[in-house]
Amino acid sequence: MNKTNTKTGNKGILHVLFGILLIVTFFLPWVSWEGSAISGYSMPLGDFFATSGSKFGLDNPFPQFNFTFLIFWLIPVLSIASILFSLQKKKSFLFAAIAGALSLSLVVVFILFTKTLLTLGVGKGLVSMLKPWIYLHAIAAIGFVFTATGGNTVKKLVWVIIGPVFAFAGFMFIENYLAKETYKDTADVKADYSVSATDLIREFAANDTSANNKYREKIIAVNGIVSQVEIKLDSTVNVKFVDTTKHFINFPLEKSDFEKTKSIKAGDNISLKGSCSGSDYSMILDSTSINFKRATLNK
Asked: Which of 160, 180, 200 is a domain's end point?
């Protein structure tokens, strides 16, 4: 009896320790994208795609579903709940299982997305871009599930596997969907709107929701003076229009247009055309990026 109580007590202590580690590592850097440290909580906070879009031109292909990322706030919330239930000798399995599954699915998304950035010329290697905290978070998630009270070993194993499997399958589905998606050449498509960079930024700054509803997935010709130009290793050119409102327009230009776009420099007065992906606010950067895709020089 004493041995059983001791074993249960040790398991409870481990559960609390794994839970604390899970919470702490959620708020620590998981990856580094050319100097930009991205933490686990960057996904529900909105900084994950805000950073990848503004710095590398890789936006969320479905920005209308950004609100779904808020589910990852359940990781620290359910971890705390599971710890409290464990301390009160109550069954904590369900809370721990959901927190663990969400954590492991988020880890998979971070790794797959970082691999995608790597193919675009960002970073030098996957291992060097991943931080120790992402590994510790994964270990904590698995330990947290298996030390929870209630639920048998098979159920716990299923919950540990289900998160990464769904995350991997979902990521692959979206990647294949985007690869098969075809569009007319942006250069040959008539713009739905023609606006100056300054006016577009002001419109988003005045009413972000209204501007997103108006411009998202529309072809827009944007005219203005270039603020920043960045030439990527994969021969793509990233052009930004910036003003003083902490808003900026981000145009990743098509790789096929490199010969025409490589000479663009800050201070040039140009016209660009692309499909607006909408805006992303970064709390860390304290700025809002208005992102475009399939962008090219306007004729």
From this structure: 180
Same domain, 146 and 193: no
Per-residue CA distances from 285 to 55, 200, 201, 297 (Å): 11, 20, 17, 28
Do the beta carbons of residue 282 and residue 296 sit within 8 Å?
A: no
Give the total number of structural domains in the chain.
2
Q: At a CB cut-off of 8 Å and minimum separation 6, what does 169 contact?
A: none
One domain for residues 218 and 163:
no
**Cα separations in angstroms, 25 against 29, 125, 241:** 8, 22, 35
- Nearest in space to 98 (alpha carbons), one of 67, 68, 75: 75
Q: Are 290 and 274 in contact (CB under 8 A)?
A: no
The tens digit of pLDDT for each residue in 138-188 reads: 999 999 999 999 889 999 999 999 999 999 999 998 888 766 655 566 777
- Report the alpha-carbon distance of residue 249 to residue 198 in Å, rounded: 9
Single-letter amino acid, residue 183: Y
Q: Are 211 and 204 in contact (CB under 8 A)?
A: yes
Q: Say yes or no: 48 and 164 in one domain.
A: yes
This prediction's pTM: 0.69
Which range marks the domain in which residue 161 is found? 2-180
Q: Among 135, 153, 180, which residue terminates a domain?
A: 180
- In the structure encoding, which two tokens stand for residue 270, read together? 């140009």
